[in-house]
Amino acid sequence: MTKTLTLLALSTALALPQLASAQEIKEFNIGVLGGENAQDRMTSNECLRAYAEAELGVPVKLFTPADYDGVIQGLLGGTLDMAALGASGYAKTYLTDPEAVEPVLVKSTIDGGTTYFSIGFARKDSGIASMEDLKGKVLGFGDPNSTSGYLIPSVELPAAGFSVAPGEYFADIKFTGGHEQTIVAVNNGDIDGGVTWADGLGDWEDGYNSGALRKAVDSGLVDMNDMVEIWRSKPIPEGPVVLRKALPQDVKDKMTALVAGLIEKDKECAYGMASGETGGFMPVTHDAYETIIEVRKLEEAKGS
Question: Where in the sequence is the domain holding 223, given as residue range(s)?
Fold first, then answer.
């Protein structure tokens, strides 16, 4: 009897991990940062959703909150399982809860780099060709949680003598809500200049190889011949693809492998996820973002 009970207990114990693994997730939710309108974000990432659903065997949904913080809060609250964050967004997530997510991959450029730039731009017919020409005019930022659309220019511009306190150097600072909104606002003349992101590779006329300008060109929102670059930041580390730490390890392994192999599996899908040309997705760790985390911590301290 004792031997029978022991064997039963052992067989039950061996079965439990498999049962738990099958029951641990019933769905998988992917957050997509702002930067372009919600429908375009859904379209660009639908292929990833379908691949993930086939790989995980559970329903996979895309979520496109109106702002960056919607994705960040979803990750912090556990309602989102994965997202491609900007470096500043990852910094906020980590500073709020270091155990919420883990960075696993980072997008590379076609030359193998993992940095990009914050790009200042204006309409060519405005006569604005530099930040000096924007004195007394209106500058647009994107989202407060954007690395290139706010954090980096808010640090580098003042260091170069261009205060971003409204009314000090620029007549006003306006938050547009996202990269696409900034590009449209500049193009329409609603603001005099703005900042957005690009890899800085390729041709200006194409919106460079990847970034918000490239996506705007692809969508027919802007003709880059009507625009001029007026400022460029120092290189910025590409933000990470993050996964919720509490996910089962096999789920994290499957999703990491899926995204890492996306460039070979479906180049067009990788293009959509990367907002343009990419060399693929490479492994990355938290260490790559320690500097951005410190910058964000200092900036938040100034505002408190």
Answer: 115-236
Asked if residue 255 has pLDDT above 50, the reply is yes
Examine the domain organization and report whether 204 and 178 are in the same domain: yes
> Does residue 171 share a domain with residue 127?
yes
Query: Are 105 and 149 members of one domain?
Result: no
Which CATH number belongs to the domain containing residue 99 in this structure?
A: 3.40.190.10
Q: What is the mean pLDDT of residues 23-44?
A: 85
Amino acid at 253: D
Q: What is the mean pLDDT of the chain?
A: 91
Domains contained in the chain, number: 2
Residue 181 lies in a domain: yes
Which residue type is seen at 115?
A: T
Last residue of a domain, one of 236, 256, 281: 236
CB contact at 8 A, 153 and 119? no
Q: Is residue 20 part of a domain?
A: no
At 21, is the pLDDT very low, low, confident or very high (cuts 50, 70, 90)? very low
Q: What is the pLDDT of residue 8?
A: 41
Q: What is the pLDDT of residues 94-132, one digit of tens each?
A: 999 999 999 999 999 999 999 999 999 999 999 999 999
Polymer length of the chain? 304
What is the model's pLDDT at position 24? 82
Following DSSP, what letter does each residue of the chain receive, concatenated? -HHHHHHHHHHHHHHHHHHHHHHH-S-EEEE--SSS-HHHHHHHHHHHHHHHHHHHSS-EEEE--SSHHHHHHHHHHTS--EEE--HHHHHHHHHH-TTSEEEEEEEE-TTS--EEEEEEEEEGGGT--SSGGGTTSEEEE--TT-IIIIIHHHHHHHHTT---STTTSSSEEEE-SSHHHHHHHHHHTSSSEEEEEE---S-GGGT-SBBHHHHHHHTTS--GGGEEEEEE-S-EEPPEEEEETTS-HHHHHHHHHHHHTHHHH-HHHHHHHHTB---EEEE--GGGGHHHHHHHHHHHHHH-
